Amino acid sequence: MWQTGSATDYFDLLYQLRQVMTGRHVATAAVNAAGTGYTVGDVLTVVGGTSTHVATLEVVTITGGGGTGPVGTVRITNAGAYTSDPTPTTANGVTGGTGSSCTIDITVANTGWTEVMESRRALSAVVSAAGNGYNVGDEIEVQGGIGQGVSTNVEKAVFTVATLTGGAGSGVATVTVKAAEEGHYQGLPANPAATLIVTGSGDDACTLTVTYESRLPDDHSVLVLEGAAAGSPDPVQIGFWTYEGTISSLEVRNWGLFGFAQDYDVAALFHNQPGISGGIKITGDDGAMEPSTSLGSVNLPLKGDDGGGTYPLLFYMSVTDRRVMLAVYNETATIKNWVTAYMGFTNQFGTTDEIPYPCVIAGSASKTLTSSLDASTSPVTTSIVHMLSSDVNTLHGPAQMLNPAGTWQKLSNGYLNTSNTFSRTNEWNTVPGGYVNLINNTFRPGYAIIPAQTFDWTEMIDYAISQTPEFELYPSPDTTATKLYVLVPVSVIVGTGAGNDPSHVWYPFGELDGLFWFSYTDAGAGIDALDYMDIGTDRYRVFRQGHRSEPAVDYFVFKEE
Question: Which pLDDT tens digit goes with each residue over 478-537?
Fold first, then answer.
């Protein structure tokens, strides 16, 4: 399922990600009535239903010759996010384009993702039991639930007594939520909820039936989603924790990305979950974060405040029931750059018994307080297909994977040393694929993603062929390209043993589903982010490597599905 859109900030982006991943979407679209007067490239909008994102289609071909005509075929350009299905599904009277009277047969499906936990605040409450001894202005605190801080039940919702059932010292009739004290829950209190007096002298017998918000709050958000992962013995669970911080007086606003080796326990705090991926310690009731000393953090740097302006976040999302891939475009007054994430299962090469839970969590920064403004034409702490670690504490990242032993494993392409070259002495120097150099047969063990920077095409593919190829694959709209592009699946390679010993074994673990890489060495001429490649009816969308600004010569590609 493919969806694009725009978010106002990083809270809104997380809200929209939830809506897209848990909503229903248009899964197939075929022409019912062709209509007349349409043009290739016309955008058609599916009608009906209730949605946060509306499905759109592109006219791919027309019939009858000429520049306009009846619609021949369409492709889904945005799958939509629906809480009630668009209708009708047969002969849907799509709108838009240069023609008229086209209708489309569609099917609507679930994505396979459900919400496990989402942080919420109290909006209002009605009194279930009045109690006695209260006065107008008394403050009562809701009991129960699981809060979001370090201790249990932090940030409880507080209500103010607005009216009484009788005179002073009687029961509570109505309440209003106290501003800035709406609570912050990852597990909601059961209704009717008990209360305790905070200010006043009531008997604590008042109970409330509380209504909580249905979307993420705007100060600190936590979200956990579960994908069905059809064919696997277990579902996949991924988590998001939003946070802010300051580096050199610069406000940064980021996501922390997480995976879970065991089922999420709704009775436990987020950061205390059994089997949660490593790399970040969550400290304080405000959800502040700091890097650990073991694994590199997995983060998505979504905003740096370079003057207080409000800038949109454009997003491109590919979702299956096994994983989500996300590319986000940050544009501020001073910089334009991309950040990316891959969260979920790989397409493992072993059986589900051998590799039962092949989860990869990858972002675009291995330092917690990384700003989107750090990006440059040279990578900072980069992306899922170009992972370097230049941190003085040798933190690895920005990716982790759950290995067959059931523990989280650092995952990187290489180690960037102080001379800005790949260190050949670090065992995690894996460029590409376990660091196998086919020229001199040297080797480095470890878990790695290939390919990566300094990848030499001559090590893998001789593209300087003498014959004319059957077809050339190039990003549109570069229709005059003469370079032959090869989409290389981004794969995880597992090495065993230690040291530079060609006798030690390495083997492929799996591919990151729908993710590809290619390199264009001509300074990026003719290629830009959001160009695409068409192979048959499949479209592959080109992006910068992540946490990098223009220009760049290495690219990764999402399959639009």
Answer: 555 555 566 777 777 665 544 444 555 556 677 889 988 766 554 445 567 788 877 777
Q: What is the pTM of this model?
A: 0.81
Q: Is 11 helix (H, G, I), strand (E, B) or coil?
A: helix
* DSSP class per residue in 163-199: EESSSTTB-EEEEEEEEEEE--EEEPPPSSEEEEEEE
Q: Looking at residue 376, what DSSP letter applies?
A: B
Give the separation between CA 52 and CA 345, rounded to whole angstroms: 27
Q: Which helix (H) or strand (E) holds 110?
A: strand 103-110
For tokens 């790989």, name the residue.
Answer: 346
Residue 482 tokens read as: 């003469």
243-282 core/surface letters (b: 16 or more CB in 10 A; e: else): bbbeeeeeebbbbbbbbbbeebbeeebbbebebbbbbbeb
Q: State the sign of the Cα–Cα–Cα–Cα dihedral 367, 371, 374, 377.
A: positive
Domain ranges of the chain: 24-110, 120-212, 222-559
Is the distance from CB of 101 to CB of 41 less than 8 angstroms?
Answer: no
* Residues 541 and 316: beta-carbon distance below 8 Å: yes
pLDDT tens-digit readout, 366-387: 777 777 766 554 434 455 555 4
